[in-house]
Amino acid sequence: MSTKRFGTAIPILPSRSMDEQLDFYQALGFEVTYRQAKPNLYACVRHSIVELHFFVLKQLNPANSYSMCYVHIPDVDAVYKEFSENLKKAYRKIPTKGFPRISKPSNLMEDRRFHIIDPAGNRLLIGTKHAAPRLIVEETSKFASAFETSYRLMYAKDEPAAAAKVLDLVLPKAEEASASLRYRAYVLRADIAVSMDERAIVNTFVQEADRMSLSDTVPGDATEEYEKLKELRAYLEDRDNC
């Protein structure tokens, strides 16, 4: 009987500044295991979930970076909690916009994941696979298709502007969708607006979702969105206090 042996893949990612790059990963909780100055700048960091190597590419524009790596882990929420708490200690806040930033965990069809985008624009997709694929939406309609596309753009691709554009095309006809899907769409649109710091839009769709909550038209399969709505209200309260 043959025994399969698997190797270990170690991503080698670009960085604009090695100091900037290492400072960020140390803030996350990574350990610097190697650093080289000559003949070229090179460094390695390690965490229990992954090892990463970096080289310097001074002309790199983080906004145009296509470098990414998927990291499969057993407990995505525990790792997110660790990283977000470490970043808050280092930066006095959790960076959610620009470079670097971290997104909150979200459920997709294949996994539950969050993203880390480092100072160079490299993207780490950190996730835990579901035991079985989960449908984002079970309905079949133009509205449902737009919702699913917008959802993936927001949470799988981290492209809120594109997600907003897709969802805004069908929201004027939201009354044609089921109560569950309509509620989820309002919460999704508000969450997209948070990532773009569009407070007025957040407020509009939080109010729409709240109206459905007050009228008891929110079905039990939207519990995840109900919890996210609490976070959206907190965002509005924080902005009001600024």
From TrEMBL:
Keywords for the protein's UniProt record, in alphabetical order: Antibiotic resistance
Keyword flag Lipid metabolism: no
Coiled coil: none
Recorded superkingdom: Bacteria
This protein's record includes keyword Transmembrane: no
Any single biological process term in GO: response to antibiotic
Name of the featured protein: Glyoxalase-like domain-containing protein
Species name: Paenibacillus algorifonticola
